[in-house]
Amino acid sequence: MNSKKIIIGVASLFVVLISGYFLFEATYNKPHLNIEASAPEIIIDAAALVNDFGLNEQDANEKYLDKIIQVKGSIGNIKYKNNKAIITLGDGGLMGNVVCHMSISGSQKSKDLTKGQNITIKGKCTGHLLDVILVESTLIK
Amino acid sequence: MKLFSILLLAVISLQGLFAQDKYFTKSGHIDFFSHSPLEDIKANNEQVLSIIDTSTGEVAIYVLMKSFSFKKALMQEHFNENYVESDKFPKSVFKGKMTNLDLSKSGDQEVAINGELTLHGKSAPINTTGVFNKSDDKITLKGDFMATVADYGIQIPRTVVNNIGKEIKVTFDLTHEPYQN
After folding, report:
1. Which secondary-structure segment (H or E) carries B34?
2. ∠B84-A133-A45 over CA atoms, to 5°?
3. Minimal CB count within 10 Å: which of A6, B92, B114, B126?
4. How far is Cα B140 from Cα A110, in angstroms, rounded to an integer?
């Protein structure tokens, strides 16, 4: 009788520990959202996205912040920082562009792009300073 | 936020007149580091907008809170949702002045930077030093300062109060290009 109790006790302790571990992994160590593998939540032209932020930034923030956005536009310029590409969609002027900070894999795919080309990029919107900013972006076509 | 854009536009539009004095970057780097006995927390932001006016020594730095990237997704969530409330306060701004800037000096020079940091809707003074370096085609400004969490009305729940430092070390590394119209 006693040994049965002990076995049940040890077994339930194991169950608690294992489920605890998985719960911990699922919350504390949960991975970042894989943007490359996720479907876009919003599909829009670069100019329309910029325009929305220009009209009412607060409304645009509610609509676009943290969303995965697929955006189409022509390349204003491409810069590199720490081997990562920063692709500007728009005229490449001081403001009013969509600036796409590419992921490492997105940067590799972007190697052969040139200014003026029309492309589609998917990334996460973090907001608007002089331009609308997308991070962890990847090249769609 | 409208007001912010108008102010920003006003700052920028002055550049037409004094273009040779203005330097800017849209891809500056800022990170912050919080040390506590239980946990070290670090986050990077590579999308920093910084504008320097060498004629007045003024520096304006604009940061999107959502652009801070953490190693752990959960930390990033807590940071945005519970601490800085980035849906309500999406931007942080530092406005300050380099007081002892000497443009005739070449190479690295230490500059005093005094200004105000606005974060989470609250402002507090920041006084620090940085290393300024001007060459023909760029200006770099590097340095760090300590920011006190309590100054910005950021509430840390009791359950995690030991996981987050009371002071956060903010490091900046900004490489500016001349503004060309």
Report:
1. strand B22-35
2. 135
3. A6
4. 28
Decide if A135 and B67 are in contact by the 8 Å CB cutoff.
yes
- Identity of the residue numbered A132: V
Instruction: State how far the alpha carbon of B91 is from the alpha carbons of B49, B84, B114, in Å.
Output: 11, 10, 20
> Which residues from A are below 8 Å from B when comparing CB atoms?
27-33, 56-58, 61-62, 65-66, 79, 81, 84, 86, 94-95, 99, 101, 125-131, 133, 135
In whole angstroms, what separates CA B20 from the centre of its chain? Answer: 23
Per-residue pLDDT tens for A60-115?
A: 999 999 999 999 999 999 999 999 999 999 999 999 999 999 999 999 999 999 99
DSSP one-letter code for B81: I
For the CA atoms of chain B, what is the radius of gyration? 17
Q: Which residue has the tokens 């940061």?
A: B63
Q: Strand B109-119 to strand B69-70: parallel, antiparallel, or no bridges (unpaired)?
A: unpaired
**H or E segment to which residue B142 belongs:** strand B139-148
| Chain A residues within an 8 Å CB radius of B91 | 127, 129
- Binary contact (B64, A126; C-beta < 8 A): yes
Note the helical H segments in A28-132.
Answer: 46-55, 57-64, 104-109
B32 in contact with A, Cβ within 8 Å: no
Mean pLDDT of B105-131: 96
- Two structure tokens written together for B16: 């037409």
How remote is the C-alpha of A55 from its chain's centroid?
A: 24
Decide if B154 contacts B124 (C-beta within 8 A). no
pTM of the model: 0.87
